[in-house]
Amino acid sequence: MSARAVRHPRLVFGAAVVAFVVLLGLLADVVSPQDPLRQNLGAKLMPPGSHERGWGWHLLGTDHLGRDILSRMVHGARVSLFVAVIAVLISGTIGTAVGLLSGYRGGRVDDVLMRVTEVQLACPFILLALAVAAVLRPNLRNTVAVLAISGWVIYAKVVRSRVLSLRESEFLAAARALGATGSRLVLRHLLPNMLSTCIVLATVEAARMIILESALSFLGLGVQPPNASWGGMLRDGKLYISSAWWYTTFPGLAIMLTVLGLNMVGDSLRDLLDPRLKV
Length: 279
Hints:
Elements: H1 2-6, H2 9-26, H3 28-31, E1 50-52, E2 56-58, H4 69-105, H5 107-122, H6 125-135, H7 140-166, H8 170-177, H9 182-218, H10 230-237, H11 246-273
Antiparallel strand pairs: 1-2
């Protein structure tokens, strides 16, 4: 697989972008040039490359409160990655379990679980986010909960379809003939066959979670000020697009490149892990 991976420039580029963003998030306190919360109205909306006496250079400029944009973007990477990873882990675990149970058991269990997923799919995401914001205070924890609740149905649908295609396969019939229990069939035979699909889906879903978290923060339903987030920076900078182009440009580019990298990794992993494409 490693030799095939080297021959996939999309995978190399995507993995490099994702690894760079992950390192920034993990080392945000170390690599951040300034305190992302420090305000100085005398240095507000300084263009990229400006120098502030006593504080150093602002390589990407400052915002409307004089905060260093590069420092806030670095700490915003930590927020986006945290939300994406936790939301994907929760939604992926729930959705995979539901899909395995629904596809393997079938019958009434399948009907009930699929009706629940259809109700979830019929509920607009923004309506769910507004409901949570109305009942609970918008914060990082509630943002993760909203994203996890909205994302599990994708895994459930995909895993269920895969289980239905494998339920009557010969290797499962042989395992049943040897006396394997239902739980053993699911955990030892069906689940390993789902892992490659789930890994690819999780990679693509992580990109979607970053976009949704940025959208919620842009609407004021996600990470709250003064904490740094890419979506929050877009929200604050929309009033200064004509006078301070860098305010929204750099956070927007960070979102675009991170999502692009994750999608490239997911697309390349699909090509590498799908045996039907190994010719």
